[in-house]
Structure to design on (312 residues):
């Protein structure tokens, strides 16, 4: 099929991840495949590294239709409360369990909430991974070590409540500004998977890596509902098929990066320790009770189906 002189649809996709990251690379491959398979009818330009603005701005632009696609991290709780549930601390034993929930019934609840707000969420989320704590002041070995620290978190009420429950102060700065904020010691530390610590070179501005595995996070590929509905069914099918392919490949990529992270960051000079995660979790009884009360019992049961850590 010959490509048209100009695309019938010219859309943009924004994300905060580095251009060299597995996430940005797989989305770029997705966009190229979409262009090829639609004969150039849909041109999708991928803009990594927060080039279209910080996450809150990109999300606002997506909602009002100024941006057609956005690969979202932890910015959805305000309109899709159930999207916070996969981050529930110490709930999931492994990534496979998280995706069993997100690719299935719990994900359906989240996607339904997003649809009510005019957003189309693709079924297969991408992987960020289990979070650990890095700091420039001291290692996190026990729950008591959180006290008094200011920690940059992904944002959202759940993250803030978790850190405050442990005596720390949660703070937020856009992902693209995190390195400079940690270098300036605006924060004592931060929470992210090992792949992020590597890709942002946080080992240059953080001394300690404490393996806590305290919560999980991923990325949700979203489309503005009106922009999605404007696409003919055959183009939607091309996009959905390539979005699934990109997500599954990205999951494998990031899982491998995270698995090699301890060795790589040790070699980069970080002081690595394994935290007492069971002891930290034991301090969260009231936290879990507060969050369970926020959701319908049926929704919480969908989480518990794949999250045995909530029942211990």
């Amino acid at each position: 099929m010959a490509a048209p002189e100009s695309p019938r649809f010219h859309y943009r996709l924004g994300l905060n991840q580095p251009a060299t990251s597995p996430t940005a690379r797989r989305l770029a491959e997705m966009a190229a495949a979409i262009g090829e398979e639609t004969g150039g009818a849909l041109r999708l330009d991928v803009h990594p590294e927060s080039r279209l603005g910080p996450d809150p701005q990109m999300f606002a632009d997506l909602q009002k239709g100024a941006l057609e696609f956005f690969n979202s991290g932890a910015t959805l709780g305000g309109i899709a409360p159930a999207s916070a549930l996969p981050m529930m601390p110490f709930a999931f034993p492994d990534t496979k369990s998280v995706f069993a929930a997100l690719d299935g019934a719990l994900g359906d609840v989240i996607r339904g909430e997003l649809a009510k707000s005019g957003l189309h969420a693709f079924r297969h989320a991408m992987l960020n991974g289990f979070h650990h704590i890095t700091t420039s002041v001291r290692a996190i070995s026990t729950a008591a070590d959180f006290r008094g620290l200011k920690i940059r978190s992904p944002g959202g009420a759940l993250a803030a409540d978790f850190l405050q429950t442990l005596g720390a102060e949660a703070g937020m700065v856009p992902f693209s500004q995190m390195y400079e904020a940690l270098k300036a010691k605006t924060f004592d530390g931060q929470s992210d998977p090992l792949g992020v610590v590597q890709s942002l070179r946080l080992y240059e501005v953080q001394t300690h890596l404490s393996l806590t595995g305290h919560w999980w996070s991923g990325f949700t590929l979203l489309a503005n509902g009106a922009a999605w509905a404007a696409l003919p069914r055959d183009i939607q099918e091309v996009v959905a098929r390539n979005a699934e392919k990109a997500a599954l490949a990205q999951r494998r990529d990031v899982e491998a990066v995270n698995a090699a992270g301890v060795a790589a960051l040790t070699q980069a000079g970080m002081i690595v320790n394994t935290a007492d995660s069971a002891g930290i979790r034991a301090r969260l009884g009231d936290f879990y009770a507060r969050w369970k009360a926020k959701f319908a019992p049926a929704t919480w049961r969908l989480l518990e189906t794949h999250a045995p850590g909530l029942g211990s």
Summary: The chain has two domains: 9-128+218-259, 130-215+261-311. The longest strand covers residues 216-224. The first helix runs from residue 22 to 37.
